[in-house]
Amino acid sequence: MNSLATAPGAHAGWVVVKFGGTSVSTRPRWDTIRRIANDWHARGKRVLIVVSALSGITDKLKAIAEAGGDRSRREALRAEIVARHEAMFAELGLTERAPLQYWLDRLTALAVDARAETGDLPWQAEVLALGEQLSSTLGQAYLTAQGLATRWLDAREHLLAQAMPNQTAWGCYLSASVPTAPDPALAAALAAHADVFISQGFMARNADGETVILGRGGSDTSAAYFGALLKAEKVEIWTDVAGMFSANPRIVPAARLLSRLDYEEAQEIATTGAKVLHPRCLNPVREAQVPLAVRDTNRPELAGTEIGATVAAAAPSVKAVSERRGITLISMESIGMWQQVGFLADVFERFKRHGLSIDLIGSAETNVTVSLDPSENLVNSDVLSALAADLAEVCRVKVIAPCAAITLVGRGMRSLLPRLAGVLAEFDLLRVHLVSQSSNNLNLTIVVDEAAADGLVPTLHAALVKSEALRAEDPAVFGPAWSELYASAAPGHETPWWQQRRDDLLALAAQSTPRYVYDLATVRERARRLRALAAPDRWFYALKANSRPELLQVIAEAGLGLECVSPAELELAATLVPSERLLFTPNFAPRAEYAAAFARGARVTLDNLHPLQHWGETFRGREILLRVDLGAGRGHHDKVRTGGAGSKFGLSLDQIEEFRQLARRHDVAVVGLHAHLGSGILDAQHWREVYAQLAALAQRFTRIEAINIGGGLGVPARADEAVLDLAALDACLTEIKQAYPQFELWMEPGRYLVAEAGVLLARVTQTKRKGDYCYVGVDTGMNSLIRPALYEAWHEIVNLTRLDEPADTLYQVVGPICESGDVLGSNRRLPGCREGDVILIAQAGAYGATMASRYNLREPAAESVI
Ligand SMILES: *Cc1c(COP(=O)(O)O)cnc(C)c1O
């Protein structure tokens, strides 16, 4: 493992890797640390591992430090800490007790130290430091036992804290700072001893040799200090998320990973709300020009966020939107003295007196408003009223709280302002207290009432992406969305069949590609699911979604009728189901097609006045259904919405009376009302509304027997989309049917039955790199599957040949058609693709082969059924 052949040379560079509490708390996590450190070592680097305390331990040590005279509480906490480390010692299978025992004895001694009674600050610092001293001791033993010779390094020997001006005694011991500059002598001295070291985060020593603590974010900061001292080639902060995101992913799952940031941008994002990285750790690495990366311990294949001096030239973009709550604003009306010499000095002196640091400043003719950030200040009502009393000597004071500060971060913010018009419209302008554009041109902050901030960040993020002020698709800056990386599938998603049948699919692909493959069992199962619903009386499958005879057979056997939109579809359908199960719902069809449909015995749906106005004889004495336009379309894309004046489908509601009169004149009976408003709908309530509206309309006719509420049952494309809740659909339809027991309920799904049953297999032809884009080309494109180009439809894409390899490259998956829209999927993370690999495009069973063309005279994909 520690092979001599790759041992770092005399001038080998350093890499500092830091692991937080959860990353050091189990044996498997230590194995990950070993792998990561070993990888660097094998690449010829010297490695310094910086660790936090086992999770929960720092809190317990803090409780000891603050227990004051409560001896028994200290003793109880001490016992818990000892037990936790004994357990870890056993879990790691360690045998040599002495090093651990040394620190456990220190703990015991400190817990009974006389200084505990008064909470003496130097004593507190020593207590707090124990967590990292213990964890690094266990880690040193384990890594070495596992074959990675690791040397323990006392952080306090190398990090020397310096008191800051105005720093309190508390700050000196418990929130210390370490000025660092590269120290080549230290790097050389360490290199003489070993290749791999482990040290403690969170601590340093002061000029008197006492232990001091670095305060919040301390372990990240330690790694940054060491990175600067050693002039490391890289500092890696390993944590539980892939890096920094364009917004807090807990409230904005669409937030994008920030792949690359410069130090200043990262600093702004960390300061204005992101919790992944403590802002204090950026200064040391920036000054020493050491790149820093934030990476996910659970997903080491991801590159995370890289922070460095220069960022690949990219167009200006908002990088992130963040939010800080609990902000207090102090508004000061200067009684006509604002321009007077010394006014601001008088005001700010009073903030200093109360130990308050100011964040944002806004000024007007007679007013200065400043904000206090709770993460930098101890803001409580006592402090505020004392401050207000003092300020009242020089101005009129108003305290506005609680507020939220919403910040947009991005280099060159001013040049982005024109794009932000629509975004800023999301703010309720009446409630904006302060707008501040930073003098470094990196941020724009808007302070609003906290109550007005709810939901604002997700809305702003969406608006920023939409306006392209946040250029989410720019791979020089942004990676995948958090939801793509982590979203555990929303409930109801099943493992797709093709994962189990990978070998069969690869065998089929070996015969020829491109090729659609359909799984009949999936179609059968979907049909069974629909037939199990109680409310609908009749089902018709819209066969334009997929007209493979084998699939139609399965659907017909399940008892569904077939909904057709052309004579050829009718002809095919008539070979599979009896005529009373045929529905003909064409649009702008010529007269002869209606006549032919009647001749076949199909049920015919009209959606216009024209046929009855001009071809009355064709319809005389017939029963028909009437398709109406209920006024607004629904669905996953403009092009699949089939309602509203902009859509060519359906009779306008204001023409119903005229239609009725025409029908009476030609002795045509309207026996059903129909509406189909769009495709890909995932909300069950939609069909309830359609039913309610059609049933109400039915009162204006005398012979209505059936209410056909259309299809459009959606199949979620992405794992984080909710699935259509069939039980809820059935329940709400059953309920509304009870109000209209006289009508039959019909539905006509297409996509739902077949989308997931089909995949498109294609073979990699070429790969290409252009600028920051990687393209992977496959042997078919929009000629086989036009949905991405036509509807911006999102289809999951995997490299079936390399299903088990880490998906670590961002690809544009494109076809061979001479059309720039010939993109099957953009920004997809796939394993490195090679010529000949089989690419699978999922959910291609609906509107795939049936919409294919011979564009460019390229034959579309063949079809097989399994
Ligand atoms: C296409 C179509 C359907 C089926 O739509 P899906 O979204 O595939 O369920 C149903 N009814 C009519 C009239 C259609 O044109």
Name the features.
binds pyridoxal-5'-phosphate; 866 residues; 8-stranded mixed beta sheet; 35 strands; VC0802-like; Carbamate kinase; TIM Barrel; alpha/beta
A few lines on this structure:
The protein is of the alpha/beta class and 866 residues long.
What does this structure look like?
By secondary structure, this protein is of the alpha/beta class. The protein folds into four domains: 3-8 and 15-239, Carbamate kinase; 320-486, VC0802-like (2-Layer Sandwich); 518-752, Alanine racemase (TIM Barrel, Alpha-Beta Barrel), CATH 3.20.20.10; 755-865, Lyase, Ornithine Decarboxylase, Chain A, domain 1. It is 33% helix and 21% strand. The chain is built from 29 helices and 35 strands. The strands form six sheets. Strands 3-4-2-1-7-10-11-9 form an eight-stranded mixed β-sheet, with helices on both faces. Strands 19, 29, 30, 31, 32, 33, 34 and 35 form an eight-stranded mixed β-sheet that branches. β27 (706-708), α27 (726-739) and β28 form a beta-alpha-beta unit. α8 packs parallel to α10. The radius of gyration is 34 Å and the shape is elongated. The protein starts with 13 loop residues before the first strand and ends with a strand. Mean pLDDT is 90; it is low at 1-5. The structure holds pyridoxal-5'-phosphate.
